[in-house]
Amino acid sequence: MKKGCFITFEGADGCGKTTQSKLVQEYLEKSGYEVIWTREPGAKGLGQKIRELLLHYDGDVAPMCEAFLFLADRAQHIEHLIKPAVNAGKIVICDRHTDSTIAYQGYGRGEDIQQLKYLNNLATGDIKPDLTFVFDVSTEVAQKRVGSEKDRMESAGLEFHKKVRQGYLEIARHEPERVKVIDANNDIDKVFEDTKKVLQSFLDLI
Ligand code: TMP
After folding, report:
1. How far is CA 106 from CA 30, 39, 94, 133, in A?
2. 100 C-alpha to center of ligand 1: Å?
3. Cα separation of 122 and 205, whole Å?
4. Residue 153: CB within 6 Å of ligand 1?
5. Among candidates 128, 129, 40, 114, which has minimal Cα distance to 76?
């Protein structure tokens, strides 16, 4: 592999993507790859401050203000971490990225999806995910996994999270080459086995 690559992990809150992204990191490192694990929002520095606002600010937040804060975090993250790491030949694993904005602010909040895609492109420039996993689980199960201590986004309600889930499935239908849906209703080991199969066929091609 001459150039690095960029793999994103997506899904509604409680889908188990963070656990799977860490298992994939461990698996890739054991296989000899240089891997960077990161997340959005709030990988480091300024991003962490934006994350705090997004998840814990307790006043009203206009939907487009919310979108721009996620996008601001993304622009900083791409420039300071993702782009340099991919260009240095590393595999970057990112827990949430552009598809979260389409699923949450687009399908969830109802903001214009074409506009959000345009803004995502402005924030990311020429770096796009090479592979995206969407962990799909029923909204009821996902909400149970989240538990009772919810942040601002997790508190948005069952109907909102159902729209987010459908949004992800819609994204996957539009881009089946890049976006792979994994059934995340199963236990962690089975989900990881399914994830590894997709990962391996991707790695065989690059
Ligand atoms: P997480 O780090 O626990 O996944 O929490 C991040 C929350 O932010 C989660 O509820 C999804 C939400 N989110 C958006 O609404 N839009 C975005 O663009 C991103 C990256 C996250």
Report:
1. 37, 20, 20, 19
2. 6
3. 29
4. yes
5. 40
The Cα–Cα gap between 123 and 157 comes to 28
pLDDT digits (tens, 9 = 90+) for 99-127: 999 999 999 999 999 999 999 999 999 89
Other beta carbons within 10 angstroms of residue 58's beta carbon come to: 6
Name residue, tokens 């066929």. Answer: 201
Q: Would you state the pLDDT for residue 65? A: 97
Give the list of residues 6+ apart from residue 102 with CB closer than 8 angstroms, or none.
113, 116, 117, 120, 167, 171
Q: How far is the CA of 145 from the centre of ligand 1 (A)?
A: 16
Task: Please work out whether the CB of residue 12 comes within 6 Å of at least one atom of ligand 1.
Answer: no
Number of Cβ within a 10 Å radius of residue 87: 11
pLDDT at 1 over 60: no
Mind giving me the DSSP string for the chain? --S-EEEEEE-STTS-HHHHHHHHHHHHHHTT--EEEEESS-SSHHHHHHHHHHHH--S---HHHHHHHHHHHHHHHIIIIIHHHHHTTPEEEEES-HHHIIIIIIIIT---HHHHHHHHHHHHTT---SEEEEEE--HHHHHHHH-S---TTGGG-HHHHHHHHHHHHHHHHH-TTTEEEEETTS-HHHHHHHHHHHHHHHHHH-
How far does the centroid of ligand 1 lie from the alpha carbon of residue 43, in Å? 12
Q: Two tokens at 89?
A: 């030949």
pTM over 0.70: yes
